[in-house]
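Quick one: structure tokens for this chain, please?
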Amino acid sequence: MALDIALIGAAGRPEDGIQIAVEPHHRLMSLSREADLPLLGRMEDYYDDVDFGATELEDLLRESCAAVCRSYEDEELLEILLGLQRLICAALRRNTGLAVIAD
């Protein structure tokens, strides 16, 4: 089981995404608490869905950049954060949101 973060397409359905397994999710949430990154922290519950609207994405991108700076020694977490940034940038270009989907 993984937590999916997906780009929402024109039809309102997930189009592209990344997955986060339990252990890296735990590390990401610990980092979000330590660094006071509240948007990333909204993904705290691994078994709950979360939506990020288009108006939240620039702030989410800033938080993800701050998280990258703090996780450069954790290759798995760094890969997840870079994937998240790719999705955020795609969503910004399309003026759409992201969905965090618990499987």
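The chain has one domain: 3-10+22-102.
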